[in-house]
Amino acid sequence: MTKRVVVALLVGAVGLSLSSGLVAQQNVTIEIGQSLYLDCVPPDQPGDIYYVITQADIEAPQPIDIGDWGCNVDAVTQYRLNSQFTSFSAPYVVNADTSDFTADCVNADDFGTCAPNSSLTLGDSDPNTRRGTGFNTAGTDGADFRGNVYVNMGVGPAGWDVQSSQLPVYVTGVITYTVTDTTP
Amino acid sequence: MRHIKPVAVILLALSLGWVGGLSQTSQTVTITVNQSLYLDCSASAAINYTVTQSDIEGSQPFTIGTWSCNVDSLTAFTLNANMVITTNTGISGASVDDFSETCTSATGGGTPSCGPGGTFGPITLGSGGNTAGSLGADFSGDVRLNVSDWDVSPIPPSRSVSGTINYSVSDSTP
After folding, report:
1. How many CB atoms lie within 10 A of CB A163?
2. Is residue A161 part of a domain?
């Protein structure tokens, strides 16, 4: 009986030496307060569009290219990029509205993909207003999207009708770009 | 035969007398080593890091903090680390292999040297030998994070991932 006790004590001592608490811990917490960053227009892209309609524009096939757009997205999630008019004013141009304006996407990098849709119409919704989609961009300078903005002045009775007595007349609006998390 | 016996008795007496003339004592010395390695990573402060836009645009992985451990040793040893994720609120793809550590400094007693570090699971941060007579071997380095495979759920609320890095020292005597 005495021998058994001694053996048990030895085993206990060996067990303690093998797991002698030679460990330490360090707690790590990573917080993500914002997973998407949108920068329109990035430094290498044009800014606001100011376009003067010429006779050649009136004669040309519609729509006509009036400028470019460009956005950079930094993301740690999958996302979509949309744009559309959020305000519009054409007080002396009958029949002019945001549905006359369209946009395309011609290039996207760093895991971004252009969408084929073109609507910039105020009040319209995704996917019609979608310019592109993308994924996590960590380790890159972000996904660069770029494209063109077009206007179609129409033809016939439904086309633009400028009040000549008010010349020069202006059609102005604001295109707002948004990026949205599309994680299912 | 009668002549031999007295001679033998005399030799025996001389022998006993010689031994009995020595002054002998004894001292028993026992050294017990119950623990040959001591690890102190209390200088590795908890890391609370908020990922910024520049982190996302920067090279991966990026540094989120530092670690530091001191080892007192009476044996050859290796310093190891591993990590477990304890909570994850809405970050798909986040795992321990997104975290890594480097060893940038190994100083002090016991001829310490940095190990390769690397991405978690288990990694070796350093090694060394007996540090007796010194303040121990000091190891330190960076804790790093790679978020390139993360897919964060919509914000708000803010999303986070937490984990614990466990440091251990083990006897590497062959």
Report:
1. 11
2. yes
